[in-house]
Design goal:
Shape: elongated
Number of strands: 8
Strand content: 15-25%
Keywords: Membrane, Transmembrane, Transmembrane helix
Number of helices: 5
Helix content: 25-40%
Radius of gyration: 22 Å
Strand order of the largest sheet: 1-2-3-4
Largest sheet: 4 strands, antiparallel
Distance between the termini: 61 Å
Structural class: alpha+beta
């Protein structure tokens, strides 16, 4: 697919692009506004390797459910299954707390003059925050995929989004060559893009899934492992005697 940079003339009422944009100041924005975008805390992730490890642990736990209900009483098996899952879950929560903190925070503060990005809002997390003056920004690169009715039969990755635009990655590039890649699991890309257009920041677009496939894969392995665990619980419950018989 082509990854050539290009410009787009996007209207802020374009629902295919901004139907997911939602923040309390949206209907009262002015040139003097200073908007804080909160953390997407529920989607916070560890490194790709750690996410894969925890997903594999849950999948192994689900696989064991096919064996131990036959070896011990189903009630004991259920208790063991839930206990092991709780250990995995709270261990992962502890590591996320250690990485990002326990509370929601302002990952992005944006106005017409500057952007402040929390260190935890970057793909490569760092301590503190980064403030970038509007005049020091060379460009903000937006990677996206798009699908419309004319391409409903296309299987190319650039058309994987059936409902319009899907933002895959956003990167702030400064005039002195610094690159700040934003973490889409912490920052609401659609809200940020809406504000960048409103405040007239220099935007360049790349029609590509680059930068977003890892996020999609993390979400898929999370969903798959949790679905497998849910099936393991149902299977274990099915081995219990029916008290009404």
């Amino acid at each position: 697919m082509s990854i050539a940079k290009h410009s787009l003339s996007l209207s802020l009422d374009n629902k295919k692009w901004f139907k997911y944009a939602s923040f309390k100041e949206r209907d009262s924005l002015t040139e003097q506004s200073c908007v804080s975008l909160k953390t997407l805390w529920g989607l916070s992730t560890l490194s790709f390797g750690m996410e894969l490890l925890f997903a594999l642990l849950v999948l192994m736990l689900a696989a064991w459910a096919l064996y131990y209900p036959y070896e011990v009483k189903p009630l004991i098996a259920l208790f063991g299954l839930l206990s092991c899952f709780s250990i995995i879950f709270f261990t992962k929560r502890f590591l996320i707390f250690a990485k990002y903190g326990r509370r929601k925070s302002n990952e992005i503060v944006i106005s017409k003059d500057s952007i402040t990005i929390a260190g935890t809002g970057l793909r490569k997390t760092q301590k503190g925050s980064v403030t970038i003056i509007r005049n020091d920004i060379k460009e903000v690169i937006v990677s996206y995929t798009y699908r419309d009715k004319r391409h409903r039969h296309t299987r190319d990755l650039i058309h994987i989004s059936r409902n319009g635009a899907r933002l895959m990655c956003m990167e702030v590039v400064t005039a002195d060559g610094q690159h700040y890649v934003l973490d889409g699991m912490r920052i609401a890309y659609y809200n940020l893009l809406y504000l960048l257009i409103f405040f007239d920041y220099p935007l360049q677009y790349i029609r590509s899934a680059s930068g977003g496939m890892q996020v999609i894969f993390v979400l898929l392995i999370r969903g798959f492992s949790l679905a497998a665990f849910g099936n393991a619980i149902i299977f274990t419950l099915s081995k219990m005697p029916n008290p009404f018989q």
